[in-house]
Amino acid sequence: MPTFPASDGTLLAYRVHGHGDPLLCVPGGPADSRYLGELGGLAAHRRLIVPDLRGTGRSAVPADVSSYRCDRLVDDVEALREHLGLPRADLLAHSAGTNIATLYAARFPRRVGRLALITPSTRAVGIEITGRERRELAALRKGEPWYPEAITALEAITRGADGDREAVAPFFYGRWDAAAREHSAASRPQNPEAVAGFGAEGAFDPEATRAAIAGFGPPVLLLAGEFDLNSPPSAVAGFAALFPDAELVVQPGAGHYPWLDDADRFTSAVGAFLG
Predict the structure, then answer these.
(1) What is the pLDDT of residue 164?
(2) What's 121's DSSP letter?
(3) Residues 182, 149: contact at Cβ < 8 Å?
(4) Are 194 and 68 in contact (CB under 8 A)?
(5) Adjacent-strand bridge partners of 16
(6) Which residues pair with residue 221 across a beta bridge?
(7) pTM of the full predicted structure?
């Protein structure tokens, strides 16, 4: 895997898939970026540049653990852009990684061509998602054989009690089949320090971020999954409304990883947006 130095000297790795115009793809987690794969075949349309966030995958563990904070990770995206020699970059991000991409867009708007936020987290802009919203979405899956165990765990978690987080995994996929089980196991974060540090105090300033993206000029795509408990379509719609030029797409039958649930529909929507 190729590498590049972050501004603090931490050596960071990235994957390259496909050919053509580059697309920087920021993973969520923080987890090994291999869970993104080739984004359901998006690599046939663009050259995907997929970094491993610091302390994950093949990127080095930083000397300063405070650098795991989301706003600090923005600097790593900028270091990657500079390393690639791109005056501007189209940017795609998934899940928690969309917080990094949103803060990047707020700080460096002129260095972004197009911005695609896939099943985005809304922490950076302060949109709260209630337990009730998640339970209402969960009820759409009540005909599934795994539902009784999963809803019991979800109800415990939304009450703030201990719940089996692995039991709720089926809610994040449109189909809970062998491929989804394998993907779920492979996409779990492996560095608890990186996870804990990501949202540490000072990571987010929603009011300032909202004000910044209200003036963000480039086109934005926000793609939600119909069944996604992590990023409900209603919350993603609220996120889209904060940008002056945003397109909202809700992918039918999809969960939190829409490129797995229907690769053709996903690549068609994202590919058309990227042009």
Answers:
(1) 75
(2) -
(3) no
(4) yes
(5) 49
(6) 116, 247
(7) 0.96
Rounded Cα–Cα distance for residues 105 and 112 (Å): 7
146-189 per-position pLDDT tens digit: 999 999 999 888 887 666 778 999 999 999 999 999 999 988 99
CA distances 269 to 87, 154, 205, 233, Å, are: 26, 31, 31, 16
C-alpha to C-alpha distance for 67 and 83, rounded to whole angstroms? 19
And the tokens for 73? 């990770």
Checking 187-190 for CB contacts under 8 A at 24+ apart, the result is 187/29, 187/31, 187/32, 187/35, 187/257, 188/31, 189/29, 189/30, 189/31, 189/56, 190/31, 190/32, 190/56
Q: Which residue type sits at 190?
A: Q
Grouping H, G, I as helix, E, B as strand and the rest as coil, residue 122 is coil
pLDDT of residue 159: 80
The reported pLDDT for the residue numbered 90 is 98
> Rounded to a whole number, what is the distance in angstroms from the first to the last CA of the chain?
28
> What is the predicted pLDDT for the residue at 163?
66
Of 189, 195, 155, the C-alpha closest to 171 is: 155
Residues of the chain with pLDDT under 50: none
Task: Kindly report the three-state secondary structure assignment for every residue of 176-218.
Answer: CCHHHHHHHHHCCCCCHHHHHHHCCCCCCCHHHHHHHHCCCCC
Tokens of 124: 């950076």
Residue 73 CB partners (closer than 8 Å, separation 6+):
53, 54, 67, 100, 198
* Residue whose token pair is 């998934």: 94
